[in-house]
Structure to design on (97 residues):
């Protein structure tokens, strides 16, 4: 499936992803550097991204949802170290921060 990454400077990068794969792994494979202060444990919020359709990813787990609430972020925000691709993820657009 195709995932479109939009970098901070608005550069569009198209990458391939697979069902069940973490969004973090897709982004890292594209060569875009990620800041992962907690090493991908989902406890710092450093890898937050905005997506065009949150329903194209798996449902946020309790700890991720708590982190996003604590940071007062909109529903379109996900932690890329926790979010996984689903069979509906084709065409997902991810805005990198």
């Amino acid at each position: 499936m195709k995932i479109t990454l939009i970098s901070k400077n608005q550069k569009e990068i198209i990458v391939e992803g697979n069902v069940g794969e973490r969004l973090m792994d897709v982004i890292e494979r594209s060569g875009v550097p990620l800041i992962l202060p907690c090493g991908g444990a989902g406890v710092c919020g450093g890898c937050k991204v905005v997506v065009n359709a949150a329903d194209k990813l798996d449902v946020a787990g309790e700890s991720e949802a708590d982190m996003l609430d604590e940071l007062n972020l909109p529903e379109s925000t996900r932690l890329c170290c926790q979010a996984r691709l689903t069979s509906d993820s084709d065409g997902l657009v991810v805005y990198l921060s």
Remarks:
- Strands lie at 2-6, 12-16, 48-51, 77-79, 93-96.
- The mean pLDDT is 93.
